[in-house]
Recover the amino acids of this structure.
């Protein structure tokens, strides 16, 4: 896990985002426990409170559940919910791309061509 001290994004949000992405990408399977709060804090050289805040954010989103004395495990993920969450990520990224294109002075057609070129390169 990579933490950037000067990214402008709070550390707990960086941790939560990385775990969220890993859970949605099924790198952590249903029922699998996340690293212990103390262990992760030690590994990342951060406060236990910061790590706990990240895990609580994931719990509030329904991605993990806390078990007293055991830690946090990954909840079963509804495939429709996963698809919806991925679609939201795509929409957010595309909105950022549209904003960047406007700043760069690109036309809608240029933006569409750029997207098509990138899609073609993927194949």
């Amino acid at each position: 896990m990579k933490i950037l001290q000067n990214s402008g994004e709070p550390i707990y949000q960086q941790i939560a985002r990385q775990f969220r992405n890993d859970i949605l990408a099924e790198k952590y399977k249903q029922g699998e426990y996340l690293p212990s709060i103390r262990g992760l804090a030690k590994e990342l050289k951060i406060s236990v409170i910061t790590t706990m805040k990240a895990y609580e954010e994931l719990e509030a989103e329904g991605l993990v559940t806390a078990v007293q004395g055991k830690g946090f495990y990954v909840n079963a993920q509804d495939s429709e919910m996963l698809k919806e969450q991925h679609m939201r990520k795509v929409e957010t990224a595309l909105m950022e791309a549209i904003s960047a294109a406007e700043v760069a002075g690109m036309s809608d057609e240029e933006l569409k061509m750029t997207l098509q070129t990138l899609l073609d390169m993927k194949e």
